[in-house]
Amino acid sequence: MQPNQKSKETTMGMEPTPEEIRDRQLFSELGLTPSEYQQVQHHLGRLPNWTELGIYSVMWSEHCSYKNSKPLLKRLPTDGPRVLQGPGEGAGVIDIGDGQAVVFKIESHNHPTAVEPFQGAATGVGGIIRDVFSMGARPVALLNSLRFGPLESPRVRYLFEQAVAGIAHYGNIVGIPTVGGEVEFDATYEGNPLVNAMCVGIIDHEDLQQGVAKGIGNPVIYVGASTGRDGIHGATFASEELSDASEEKRPSVQAGDPFMEKLLMEACLELVQKEILLGIQDMGAAGLTCSSAEMTAKGGVGLDLYLDDVPQREVGMTPYEIMLSESQERMLLVVAEGREAEVKEVLDKWELPSAVVGRVTEGNRYRIFHHRECVADMPVNTLVDDAPINYRQGEEPSSYRDGTTASHQDLHHLDATDALQQVLRAPSLASKRWVYQQYDSMVRTSTAVRPGSDAAVIVLDGFDKALAMSVDGNSRYVKLDPWVGGASAVAEAARNVVCAGARPLAITDCLNFGNPEKPEVFWQLENAIDGMGEACRQLATPVVGGNVSLYNETKGVAIHPTPVVGMVGLVESQEHITTQSFKQAGDVLLLLGSNRGELGGSELQQQVLGSISGRPPVLDLEAEKALQSTVLHLIQTKTVSSAHDLSTGGLAVALAEAAFANALGVHMDVKTDLETIPYLFGESQSRVLLSLPKESVAKAISMADEKGVPWCQLGEVRGDRLSITINGSEVISQPVSRLQTIWEEAIPCAMNASLTN
Amino acid sequence: MRFAVLVFPGSNCDIDCEKAIQKVLGEPIDFVWHTQRNLDDYDAIIVPGGFSYGDYLRAGALARFSPVMEGVVKAATEGKLVLGICNGFQILQEAGLLPGAMRMNDHLKFRCDIQPLTVVNNSLPFTQDYQMNETIRLPIAHGQGNFYCDEATHYELTQKGQIVFRYQGDNPNGSVDDIAGVCNQAGNVLGLMPHPERAIVEWMGSQDGGKMFTSMLRYWEEKIGAA
């Protein structure tokens, strides 16, 4: 059908005509290249009008099509015996036994947060919740991974404070506990903060839904908030670098309404329980366009959309605006013809606006009608399956080659006590209580391990089993060696859930990188993905979904490559739930794993030198597997009192963190060939600190020996001081309370600085 | 003893209250939709936490106009037990069933934590299983829990034993006289910002909430026994 090619009058003036678009190359304003514009013409056999071009531009954006990352993402393992749904739907689904499954996904909302932190972060949470309940699952937990610049900057403090408040606002009102997360501060994120939100849901297998349109003649039902002009072209905005002009893109940021989300969630889950739905999909990035086009393409059908029937909150919206709006809290449903009234009854009960806005058709045409005219007519496969793919080539940066020669001798002279205080005070490592106190972590009364331990744990009503979850990523390691850094992110996330008493099941990942058109950035992306993939294969934790956020650059400078891994693990029995904190005086401290004294990319190096260099800690995946299997076995046989993963800050920080919660001291006396600073602050991977009753020590050691895991008996839990003696000299002796004060007060103090200085 | 837990659009702790009552008491409890006016079938009514109507106006300000509030007022007048938790407390204040008003927390941020409290009045149907001046730990999670009343009201609350719980240690929201929970003059309507339903079993971090529900059941059983 030849759509009406006349231009529409908008609030911004007249839309350009197809000829004007061609002649003035206006497609570039929508982020399309000349070659992509040629492809659109080829697919249509004519010039596209403004509405059609807008639809192609969002559907072919990196955010929706993964055109730059798809060839790399294919290298990740996505299958496994427990995988019920891998990447491609709203969220990944993993079998957890008893006919139940866990549904989870992580997604970025970086660019919106950079220009409008409260709403940007809040709507990131809203989007990921919808991804989970659109699968039919009840969302039970939220996590987030945040990256900001140094808190010395007033702008950064504003962004950080508002983003945290936005996350809290949304999650708290929807009534889903925010149970865990991580926050790091580094100059690399000053102009481009990262907000990655993860949601975890629970479902019975038979309730699993799909984002698909099927059944010729079936109605397509729009439900939720009305459509406004907010967020138009958000997906395109997310797929370009930030600049001074980004502030003008504030209208690309949506405003969230968590109350509406709560109603929408309850209504959709009620429809799932009533087994009415054939297909359901969130209107997220690229709004009505992406949800309807993806559902149509997946169903192998066509679609007619009637925009006059779409609930609208503003008058005079053009088809372009309605199709590209990213107004929040909206879902698209497909039901069998004749069941519209049943759907409406549920939606009316929750006082939700809804309307039949389209019909499933035969063939593959994606047609849009407005004011009784056809305004767009496209083959739907060209929007989704046939989106262009860019095969790029990476190039190893010279800084990587230089890394092998770096030495860390300049840190060895430091006083151990000063060094410990300095890293505990570093906001990246300091207590995040200031953040997580703002999140309701206990609503739904299933949170067994609250924020502040290695992993959060959620119990499942009516079962003895529980779920452990963690988000992790260390961009410094990735910057220094993307392969090792990518693999380490997976390994650490797995180690964290193991320390909570869980068997790691699967991951969701959020790949935050710079502009992939730059060969060095593409090299980072390629190697990080390969490292993650190898770690996932070795640890048997497939990737079941995630998100790619590229173009994280400010004024041409890319962020540290930051893959973030969200891991979910299964705790077989609530008796296995373990936390990082010491439980009782007299327990023996046992360190599992090898200490190589590695300071490259360490927190200490960053804090003391203000920069990182060298290679990150080595990761031996065989050793990692043996360690995790040993720790999990010891936990499941109730041999240990606490288990804590060693990560940033090394052994010294792990000891301090484990001491804080119950104000229990450490008496440690060891001999080592390493110098004190690398021994205490090196960040060698695959290490776990255990505390356990004396009578269990022999059992733990024999288990470690059996699995070939190196161990070291450090000392014991004793008194109220952190006392560390190395090779006969006491290098640290501090009251735990004093160290805890430094650690607790770092972020509140930084945030209390005047916003105007 | 039959419990009703009210469900407004935006209620989040309704299911938690149901789970707690079932776990601690094993007594029947029904979810009651906000449009239902009649609550005559119930012996106790729980107004749960959450964000009714998004709390976009003032917390509880819209929910109090719901039809179900007619039944709540009637139940309160008849001497039945009415328990308002967090947003439920705010709704009961807005409905005029409890004194005082809520302001934003003085630090202007939402606060979630496990908070020590002092039981200031243990002679109520809700608190009789606690010791007088007992320290208990209950989770808090609110942005508008800064209880305010004028001096005259405060004097009256003190004189009539209507202050039921006080925050111990750091006051988490700036409330007048560290007030965490108050009751009406008759003692059958209690509102508190902390969440007893979130402190039931050991893995929750505290089990101190259970006694509130056992107190209610014991009161009801004694009342029935006496009748």
Low-confidence stretches of chain A: none
Quaternary structure classification: heterodimer
Mean pLDDT of chain A: 94
CATH superfamily of the domain at 1-76 and 210-386 in chain A: PurM-like C-terminal domain
Q: What is the end-to-end distance of chain A?
A: 61 Å
> Nearest-angstrom radius of gyration of chain A?
26 Å
CATH architecture of the domain at 1-76 and 210-386 in chain A: Alpha-Beta Complex
Strand tally of chain A: 30
Largest interface, C-beta closer than 8 angstroms, per-chain residues: A-B, 32 and 30 residues
Topology pattern of chain B, helix = H, strand = E: EHEEHEHEEEEHEEEH
Q: Give the helix tally of chain A.
A: 26
Structure description:
The complex is a heterodimer of chains A (about 750) and B (about 230). Chain A is an alpha+beta fold and about 750 residues long. Chain A is globular, with a radius of gyration of 26 Å. Chain A has 26 helices and 30 strands. Chain A has a domain of about 250 residues: PurM-like C-terminal domain (Phosphoribosyl-aminoimidazole Synthetase, Chain A, domain 2, Alpha-Beta Complex), CATH 3.90.650. In chain A, strand 19, helix 20 and strand 20 form a beta-alpha-beta unit. Chain A is about 35% helix and about 25% strand. In chain A, strands 10-12-9-13-11-14-15 form a seven-stranded mixed β-sheet. With about 230 residues, chain B is of the alpha/beta class. Chain B has a single domain, classed as Rossmann fold (3-Layer(aba) Sandwich). Chain B is built from five helices and eleven strands, in the order βαββαβαββββαβββα. In chain B, the strands form two sheets. Chain B has a nine-stranded mixed β-sheet with strand order 2-1-3-4-11-10-9-6-7, sandwiched between helices. In chain B, a hairpin with a 5-residue loop joins strand 10 and strand 11. The model of chain B has no long low-confidence stretch (mean pLDDT about 95). Classes of the chains: A alpha+beta (about 750), B alpha/beta (about 230). The interface between A and B is medium-sized, with 32 and 30 residues.
